[in-house]
Design goal:
Oligomer: single chain
Number of helices: 12
Number of strands: 0
Radius of gyration: 25 Å
Order of helices and strands: HHHHHHHHHHHH
Shape: globular
Strand content: under 5%
Length: 295
């Protein structure tokens, strides 16, 4: 006795469409990170909070010793050299804590490799030398804008001019911690999660907006420097979107900051040879992208 299947012609299954196979899941990496948008936004908020509130732990003990009344506190924080220095130097532990939080989020407490999840490798087109050339080009654009626009003084200008120690500390942070922290926050954690959820174009815009929300207010009304900030962030984010790599972004940021850090250190020695528009520590064009000093 034949079974129902045996009684059918051999080609009866020829027109039966096979069940579609489910696509293989993407491997974890910078474009498919092991964290999601809520975690990325929470990490960004934490990084901002650390920059805002870390100075309290450094400045308050000093203020208490000075017996400053509440009515004169604001002016004291903006003019006293030691108070300004303490606010600036507090950025270093804030950066270190941010890096620690980034490791916990990116690796999920050690389950995944930190650098691999961020895309810390070279791209075939954006190697070290091309990344360096982009940074130098951005710097030349920036210094040209500063020269021709000659905008008003900004809060960061006042910080740099408050004391030599503060200016050198800014130069140190601009190369030692800021490029790494900035890139991990914006092009590493934030962009990676956003581009998977909403696509690259919207992710680029959101990263730029969040970057501006943190940095732009302290540079108003100098629109020339604001333009440079947004230009730098746009180039860095587009490089990240095109390559899927974070290391070229870091090198561009590092070289861009490094040139300015050298200028901050050497500026007093060649000030007399500069055009009038370029004199003073502010001529180094230290952008808000270097770090966040909130006044």
């Amino acid at each position: 006795m034949s079974t129902p299947t045996e009684s059918l012609p051999k080609d009866s299954f020829a027109n039966v469409a096979p069940e579609p196979l489910e696509p293989a899941p993407l491997p974890l990496g910078p474009d498919n990170p092991p964290w999601h948008v809520p975690g990325a936004i929470g990490f960004w908020l934490l990084s901002v909070a650390l920059i805002l509130f870390m100075p309290v732990f450094f400045v308050v003990p000093y203020i208490l010793r000075q017996e400053i009344g509440m009515e004169g506190l604001s002016g004291f924080l903006l003019t006293d050299k030691t108070a300004i220095f303490l606010q600036v130097v507090s950025t270093i532990p804030a950066h270190l804590l941010t890096l620690g939080a980034a490791w916990l989020l990116v690796t999920r407490v050690g389950k995944f490799p930190f650098l691999a999840m961020l895309g810390w490798t070279w791209d075939a087109k954006y190697n070290f030398w091309r990344s360096t050339a982009i940074a130098v080009g951005l710097y030349l654009v920036g210094i040209s804008l500063i020269y021709f626009l000659d905008g008003p003084e900004t809060p960061l200008n006042k910080i740099l001019n408050s004391s030599r120690l503060t200016a050198v500390t800014v130069a140190f942070m601009a190369t030692a911690t800021a490029p790494l922290v900035e890139e991990i926050i914006y092009r590493g954690v934030l962009y990676s999660a956003l581009q998977r959820a909403i696509g690259a174009r919207l992710a680029i815009w959101i990263v730029l907006i969040l970057f501006a929300l943190v940095h732009v207010p302290q540079y108003l009304p100098n629109y020339g420097i604001l333009f440079i900030i947004l230009l730098l962030s746009t180039v860095l984010t587009i490089v990240r979107a095109r390559t899927g790599k974070l290391l070229p972004c870091f090198i561009i940021h590092l070289v861009f900051n490094g040139v300015q850090s050298v200028l901050i250190v050497l500026e007093p020695y060649f000030r007399q040879y500069l055009p009038e528009q370029m004199r003073g520590a502010e001529s180094a064009i230290v952008l808000a992208s270097l770090f966040g000093v909130q006044l």
